[in-house]
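> tool_call: predict_assembly(chains=two)
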Amino acid sequence: QVQLQESGPGLVQPSGTLSLTCAVSGGSISSSNWWSWIRQSPGKGLEWIGEIYLPGSPKYHPSLKSRVTISVDKSKNQFSLKLSSVTAADTAVYYCARNGEPCYFDCWGQGTLVTVSS
Amino acid sequence: QSALTQPASVSGSPGQSITISCTGTSSDVVNYNLVSWYQQHPGKAPKLMIFEGSKRPSGVSDRFSGSKSGNTASLTISGLQAEDEGDYYCCSYADSTTYVFGTGTKVTVL
């Protein structure tokens, strides 16, 4: 059974870059063509950040597109998120997830809290 | 791209049925039969409960069912149990190849 685990710094300076990695275990990252990042601000709802399509290019939420990069490393069975020019509004629990086809998220990581603060 | 609209809270007694609505637009719910529903317990990751509007993943109780009419998708929980307490979110595929989540509904079992 595929499991996902997010990792990365829990504290990022304002205007810095948030970097997270999602390790896929219990199966191959090629078990799905699509993998996503989703976040949840404290006490708030869920927000889709973007997804990586293994054979091709990533897709991003329009409001974050200028600041987001999602990439994949098949050799390490993991994919990554970079979010630049962060502010306090980017403080959230960040989840990685596997996309089912079509268009749902059937496996989630436990989530990791990233706080943007000096 | 606005979040889908859900009621902030819904409650019911054990054994009763409740329905959570999820209202969207022609950019998402109306034009795509691709609504999914997630259950989230405090401090935990969301769990997929319904996909493609009405399909249940393996292992999800048949007390959970989904439907859609016009611009509103719905999740019904039958035979409400204490373990069903938590937050529920809908999600729809949307124009511009993106996803939009609902505002979330807190379910309370009285």
